[in-house]
Amino acid sequence: MPEPPPVVVRGGRVVAGGRARRADVVLIGGVVAAIGPDVAVPPGAVVLDAGGCLVSPGLVDLHAHLRQPGHEEAETLASGCRAAALGGFTAIVAMPNTDPPIDSAAVVEEVRALAAGQPCEVLVAGAITVGRRGERLAPLRELAALGVRLFTDDGAGVQDGGLLLRALEYARGLPVVLAEHCEDAAIAGGGCMHEGAWSARLGLPGVPAAAEEAMLARDLALVAEAGAPMHFLHLSTRGSIGLLAAARARGLPVTAEVTPHHLALTDAAVQGYDPVFKVNPPLRPEADVDALRRALAEGTVDAVATDHAPHPPEAKDRPFEEAPPGMLGLETALSVTVTALSGQLRPEQVLARMTEAPAAIARVSPAWRPRAAAQGGPLVVGAAAHLCVFDPAATWTVDPGALASRSANTPFAGRTLTGRVRHTVYAGTPVVVDAELVG
Questions:
Q1: How many CB atoms lie within 10 A of CB 393?
Q2: Distance between CA 135 and CA 131 in Å, rounded?
Q3: In the beta sheet, which residues pair with residue 255?
């Protein structure tokens, strides 16, 4: 494959350490060749205008459901990666709740083959248990040897605490992290939205906050016992934030993420019975949303992850109780998060929680990879040429039919968002220019 021409990102403010400075960026041979004011343009270079924009490392998503293999009617690796590129992502973690689940070397290799040549890197997550059934461990060592670094049964938590403890003890000797969807199924009891004032008013069965908090408390105790790291997916309650803060104060090796939709929406959105607002964990009341925002701003929560969960129209076009949970997130994540955190975090700081932090958790940061192959930055000479150029002042209206995903289940349909990705560069090649896919 021929080497891409040089690229110059001109006129932007380069983000580093939660701050930004005026500089141009030159990309040659898939790496950052120069950073500075008014750099010389190499012969034959592609020049990308970044005036008024923030220039950051490419975004890294810890949590995307790409549905392939098995549910291509909702999403494919190709459509999901196009959506990711438009959202500024240069790496996304593909969740293992596919059909068949990603619990064997064969399925890992199948997903990687499907991801080849896409406009972002796909990091394959493996299941903790065979078939995600919670009965016996998947071959963690074999999959780790293939480069799988994150394991989760996402879509369901591992209900058997003894089995999860064995998984943690086994993982302790591997360069991996287990990630938990914290939900005690018995406590959740088949509910379909947050249990509270709105569920009572709407007559819908609720999921109490205790379903998440009880499993989180158990898992934190198991981490303390095993001494192995764990990442917590899409935390959603203020009680969970309190438990996480106490665990971190004790020095436990834990990290956590929140989603843009849990930062931006409350359970009041369900009042119209529209299944587009059904998600797991469910949208919570304003007090929980406020706690999540504070936790992200203060660093108790490390990262923002999309939990991108496409469903075809016929799946969502059911009564609220019967529709599957999940929302699109890749294309809107940065805009929604910057807006939700306005007044608490500057856009530069939000970018750090969508680049450096998730890259470290996914084991693809410079601490885990050679700098020229790493994701998440920082942008320095010799770093991989993965960039997101974000215009914090741009406005755009979300049109579900214009999104790259095969599905249209976005809760932000018709909303005007502030801030938009202008360009995305992956491995030195512009894949999104002026908010449009290249090629």
A1: 10
A2: 9
A3: 231
Which member of 274, 307, 391, 399 is catalytic?
307
Q: Which CATH architecture has domain 57-372?
A: Alpha-Beta Barrel (3.20)
CA proximity to 35, closest of 13, 4, 17, 3: 13
pLDDT tens for each residue of 157-198: 999 999 999 999 999 999 999 999 999 999 999 999 999 999
Residue 20, strand partner residues: 15
Predicted TM-score of the model (pTM): 0.97
Task: Write out the DSSP string of 166-208.
Answer: HHHHHHTTTT-EEEE----HHHHTT--EESSHHHHHHT--EE-
C-alpha angle 65-67-69 in degrees, rounded to nearest 5 = 140
In the structure encoding, which two tokens stand for residue 156, read together? 């369901």
pLDDT digits (tens, 9 = 90+) for 361-373: 999 999 999 999 9
Residue 1's pLDDT is 56
Neighbours of 330 (CB within 10 A): 29
What would the two tokens of residue 196 be?
A: 């509270």
Q: How do the domains of the chain map onto residue ranges?
A: 7-54+381-437, 57-372
User: CB under 8 Å to 229, separation ≥6 — which residues?
Assistant: 177, 178, 223, 253, 254, 255
**Tokens of residue 377, six digits:** 């930055």
Asked if residue 315 has pLDDT above 70, the reply is yes
Instruction: Kindly report, residue by residue over 300-312, the tens digit of the pLDDT.
Output: 999 999 999 999 9
Closest CA to 435 of 420, 416, 413: 420
Q: Indicate the residue type of 337.
A: T
Our answer to whether residue 307 is catalytic in this structure is yes
Q: Which CATH number fits domain 7-54+381-437: 3.30.565.10, 3.50.30.10, 2.30.40.10, 1.20.1420.30?
A: 2.30.40.10
DSSP-H helix ranges across 227-365: 238-249, 260-264, 286-298, 313-316, 333-340, 347-352, 356-361
Element (H, E) at 390: strand 387-397
Q: What token pair was written down for 307?
A: 């939990």
The gap between the terminal CA atoms of the chain, to the nearest Å, is 16
* Residue 317 buriedness (CB in 10 A; 0-12 / 13-18 / 19+): exposed
Helix or strand or coil: residue 262?
A: helix
